[in-house]
Every structure is written in C-alpha cells, then in structure tokens.
Amino acid sequence: MRKIYETDSYIKEYETVVTASGKLDDGRYYVELDETIFFPEEGGQNADTGTLSILKKCDGPVADPTAKDIEKNIITEGNCIRLTGGIIRRGDAVNDDLIRYIVNKPVEAGSRVLCRLDWDDRYDRMQNHSGEHILTGVIHNRYGFDNVGFHLSDMGFVTLDLSGVLTYEQVIEAEKEANRAIYANMPIRDCYPTKDELKNIDYRSKIDIEGQVRLIVIGGMTDTSYSDCLDVCACCAPHVARTGEIGIIKVISVINWKGGIRISMLCGRRALEHINKEHDLLTETARSLSTEAVNVPAMVEQHKKEISELKYRVSEILKQTITDRIMNANGDEMRLVFVDGDYPADIMKDIYNTLTGKYYGYVGVFAGDDEHGYRYNAGSRDHDSRELAAGLKERFGAKGGGSPQMIQGRITASEEEIKEYFKL
Ligand SMILES: [Zn+2]
Q1: What is the distance in A from the centroid of ligand 1 to the CA of 129?
Q2: Does residue 300 form part of some domain?
Q3: What is the mean pLDDT of each run of 10 residues along the chain (424 residues)?
Q4: How far is the CA of 26 from the centre of ligand 1 (A)?
Q5: For residue 215, how far is its CA from the centre of ligand 1 (angstroms)?
Q6: I want to staple 20 with a disulfide (CB 3.0 to 4.6 A). Which of 32, 159, 339, 403 is the partner?
Q7: Are 157 and 107 found together in one domain?
Q8: Distance (Å, rounded) from C-alpha 25 to C-alpha 195?
Q9: Contact, 104 vs 82, CB < 8 A?
Q10: 11 shares a domain with 104
Q11: Are 117 and 37 in contact (CB under 8 A)?
C-alpha cells in the first residue's frame, strides 16, 4: 500500500483500487486500498475521515488508467461509502504496514474507487501537528526535554507531555519563539535517510523504528544538512509545507503531569476559534459590568469583596432576628430552628449556643431546605450529644459527629421528619 499522505499531504482526491475487503471481528466492514491518501490512527493522532465513491469499471489496466478509461469512471449513483477510521498494523523492515479502513458498507475487492478526504478536518490536524513539532522542538533545544506523550483528537485541546518540569512563564517564552518560527515561514519537509545516514543525524524520536525512518525537518537551508534546522523528528503524520500555514501556536494551560508537565495547546483555525470564544466571553462580561475589558479582573475582585462583606452583614442581622425569636418564644416552639439556604458556620454555632442557653434537652439549628437537605448543629447541654449523632445516622443516614457538647453535619430529611424525630 503506497502511503501518498506521507509524500504529499495536500492531495484531497485520488483514484485507486480496493485490494481487499471484509468484516472485522467486531462486525465492522473494512477495506484495504492499493494507494491511500487517508492517514490511519497512529502516534496519538486521530484517523482521517472521508468518502469512497465506487466508479464504474473501466477496461484499461487498473494501475495505469488511460485518459479514455478515466472518462468512463463515472461514480455509480448513490454508491458513496463513508470512511470513518483506519487501523494500522505496523510493518517491519521486511513487511509493509497494513492499513485497514473502516467503512459503513461492504465494498467488493477489485472495486475502483474515488477517495475524497474530509479536507478541513485533515488540514486542522496538519496545522496542530506541525505546531506541536515546533513547540516541542523549541523546548527540546532550550531545555533538553522530550515529548513523551502526544494526543491530537478532534475535540478539546492538543496535549503534549514533557519529560521535565518547566514553569508556565518558561513555556510562554517557548511559545513566543515557536510563533516567531511561524512568522519566518520556514519550510517543512519529509526526509528518508538510510540507516547509515541516520546515525549522524541528531533527531527526536519517541520509539525505536524498524524499517525506513521518516523524518520531519523544520527550517534549514539545505536538503543534506540538518545542523541549521529548528527541529528534526521521526514522524509518520501529514504536515503543512511551511510554518506560516500554522497561523498561530497558543498554549492554553500547563499542569504537572507524571513527573513532568502536560501542555494543552491549539494551533491554526482551532486556536483562533478558542481565542474568539474567550474574547467574546470577556467582552460580554465587561459589558455587563459597564467597564472596559482591561478593568474586569479588578472589578470582579472588588465585587467579590463587597458580596462577602454584605453576606456577613446580612447573616449578622439574621442571627440577631433569630436570637430575638428564640429568646421571646414560648415553650418549646423554637427548640428546633429551620433557616433557608446557606449560613456561615460561626453563625450556626452562635444560634446553637443561644438555644442551649435557653433549653434543656436536645436542640438544633438546620440550614437548607427539604429538597437538598440541611446542614445542622445540634445537641444538648445536659446529654451527651454524640448519642443524638448516632440516632440521626441510624434513622436518616445523617453524616456528622462532634463532641458531647455539640454535633454538626449534614442530613437528608424533611423539616417535618426531623421535627417528628426530635419529639422522641
Ligand atoms: Zn509528529
């Protein structure tokens, strides 16, 4: 199987022949192609998708159709097959790689097909994969670390795992240099050195590769020297022809990961879409705060501070109101206090202390509602409160514990059920 995507990643349509077909163990149909423009799932990158259109049989030789034969190759109406993935079994120095493509309908071996790539998706992967090589190459040159894990799916961010730890600032410095490589519009080429030539080339590679090694070379002035290149890396995937096509490399986040770091990044169209989305969010937030985008962080901090002060003042007022009600209550009517929503822990405790100051026997304050349950402080000044915790756990599965003076925790029960239980 000739892998056209390796030597020309820009071919979007190609005619070839289905050399074998059948069903996989899981019931899905597959085809094998004589020549292919579809990259299979490999090295952390998703497989290409596209279509196969079955052509009417031609009389000429299959491998080298004449112009007359091609004219006859009209697509059979309605016979368009969706290609959704590719599984590769790596060959070695002797055997070629075997690629089986997953298709949604059975296809007869010997069928002549027109392959069409889902080009926008493929180009997006080319931008992101080439961008990853540049950023990793820059980091490798600066710090000597390697990419030990790479994932390029069609959703979310591209991730690369590095063998060493860098700070966020160091990664952003590398990002700047990587983007300068984009502005320089360097060539990106594939090379196929012999085993002997390979011994003298300093290149990045995650695994030992049997058979012919394919190198992706970024930058450099000549075809024979690699010393002035930005990056040389063994890779099987399609890449863009020049760094300028990547458009932008944007680091999204850096986290510690298995003794090194994981960088999430985006390139090209996907980076622009992400930046646009975040820009829209910031603009919308600024508009709702009636300020400029640049003032948003300080204003949010100011609002958070004000809300927290207001919350405290409100809860102080509520505490005073509840305390007054407890003190003025007749009989046992305020032995159990139920309040809506969330209350600060120190206010809950203060209310509880007011209750134990007034009542003998079990008392409690419950904050929340019947639907979501309650946080509680409960107990008694003349009984061991932990006995109450055991009872609440047994009856309601309540969580919590505490001291002989007071227990606290969370309970899922209605106000009515709790009041009923406390009558016991
Ligand atoms: Zn690669």
Answers
A1: 6
A2: no
A3: 94 95 93 95 89 72 48 55 84 81 92 93 97 98 94 90 97 98 96 89 78 91 77 95 98 96 97 97 97 96 95 90 93 92 89 95 95 95 92 93 95 95 82
A4: 30
A5: 9
A6: 32
A7: no
A8: 37
A9: yes
A10: yes
A11: yes
